[in-house]
Design brief:
TIM Barrel, 10-stranded mixed sheet, 16% strand, 14 strands, DNA polymerase, domain 1, 2 domains, 34% helix
Length: 402
């Protein structure tokens, strides 16, 4: 039985908000300290202290930072906060998957506070956090629920990092915090509750590349959040010209949402294919800086009944990927209300998977996770909006009755 814990209060007023230091990089923290007239000779040391408290220990209050003098702690809390986005809703699936709907602070008077979602998927030896890079998505892939939502904006780097900070808070994954009572969390020597990040939530990361790369650098910093770049995967629907930059300047793992082996079909499923067709996309993959058999590119392939799931397509997939160090992830389509597709039958997926397996790829069909909480990206947001609309209608009806 899924559990929905919270539904939000009205958005906070932007005027009352101080800058939150949670999510800032070292340069930005330095600038914040300079604004408090901290002597230049102390900036490096103070930045290191803040970094440790925010990213290593998960401090939520400046007064917990005991190696910083009391007067400076007071000045910091007068000028800044350590606020994280507001948790609007949390759902816990029977399989331990958790889904959070987060609302960011409004950026101006017209902004009602952007909402995004992130999903946590625990397994026995790892815990993967699926983060969003944009509010909504402009790309309109025909099987994706996020594509049906209007893009509001790119997320900033601190907003992307804040998703990991919220997850570590909720999961008790910072030193000194209790582990949550309910739900499966991975175990083992040195295993963190969140050990892996995938940019597979809402949005197209390569359309927000600067912020995504900045967020990856902070997440991978060994003095703080300490996630190796080999455990951070950026998934793209195929923005071919940006792939080289991602590899050369940042170097996380790469995933490609392929989903079709012919341009005519991929044009329909992933309309961006009209701009960057399969040949161009795969050429960019072959040239991805750092790609090797030890650092393979993941190709995602969503299984759509009667659309892209024949044995001939499985064989063509193998042919297409020849020469690219690759992993293949077959994803059962996660249906959403009104979706124009169905998930392939189990036998069809097994046949497809066998062809791929016989060609030398480990290609288990990924077990659907969190089905009871609509874990496909974009769905919690819509569901919450539907509930809110329902609540509003009920209020209006009761007003009419008076
Ligand atoms: N925009 C990026 C990353 C976010 S989408 C991209 O497209 O790669 C993350 C993954 O979820 C993509 O592979 C996408 O194709 C897949 N996806 C989207 N909707 C889905 C659904 N309803 N069922 C299964 N997978 C889905
Ligand atoms: Fe956007 Fe990715 Fe969904 Fe396509 S699959 S609409 S690129 S989030």
């Amino acid at each position: 039985m899924p559990l929905a814990l919270t539904l939000a209060r009205p958005p906070p007023s932007p005027a009352s908000s101080k800058l939150s230091l949670a999510g800032l990089n070292r340069l930005e923290l330095g600038a914040a300290l300079r604004a408090l007239d901290i002597p230049e000779r102390d900036i490096r040391m103070r930045v290191a202290q803040l970094w440790h408290w925010i990213y290593f220990r998960g401090a939520r209050d400046f007064h917990a930072m005991l190696n910083i003098s009391k007067p400076l702690r007071s000045r910091l809390s007068e000028a800044f906060t350590l606020a994280l986005p507001e948790l609007v809703a949390e759902q816990v699936s029977s399989d331990g998957t958790r889904k959070w709907l987060l609302r960011f602070r409004p950026v101006d008077a017209h902004d009602k506070g952007a909402e995004i979602e992130c999903v946590y998927i625990p397994e026995s030896d790892r815990g993967t956090l699926c983060v969003s890079s944009q509010v909504g998505c402009t790309l309109n892939c025909s099987f994706c629920h996020t594509g049906t939502q209007r893009l509001a904006r790119n997320l900033t780097a601190p907003e992307i990092i804040a998703q990991l900070l919220v997850a570590r808070q909720r999961l008790g994954d910072f030193p000194g915090l209790d582990k949550p009572v309910a739900g499966l969390v991975p175990s083992g020597e040195g295993v963190r509750a969140v050990s892996n990040i995938v940019f597979m939530g809402m949005g197209e990361p390569l359309y927000n590349l600067d912020n995504v790369m900045a967020a990856v650098e902070t997440m991978a910093d060994g003095d703080g959040l300490s996630l190796s770049k080999r455990r951070i995967t950026v998934s793209t629907s195929g923005v071919a010209p940006q792939i080289e930059r991602l590899g050369a300047e940042c170097g996380p793992m790469l995933a490609i949402s392929l989903h079709a082996v012919r341009d005519d079909l991929r044009n329909k499923l992933v309309p961006l294919n009209k701009k960057y067709p399969i040949g161009e996309l795969l050429a960019a993959c072959r040239d991805y800086p750092g790609v090797s058999n030890a650092r393979r590119i993941t190709f995602e392939y969503v299984m759509l009944k009667g659309v892209n799931d024949t044995p001939a397509e499985a064989r063509q997939l193998v042919r297409l990927l020849k020469g690219i160090p690759a992993k293949i992830n077959l994803i059962p389509f996660n249906p959403w209300p009104g979706a124009p597709y169905e998930c392939s039958d189990w036998e069809t997926m097994e046949r497809f998977s066998e062809i791929v397996f016989n060609a030398g790829y480990a290609s288990p069909v990924r077990t659907p996770r969190g089905r009871d909480i609509l874990a496909a990206c974009g769905q919690l947001k819509s569901e919450t909006e539907r509930l809110r609309a329902g609540a509003k209608m009920a209020t209006e009806r009761s007003c009419l009755l008076k």
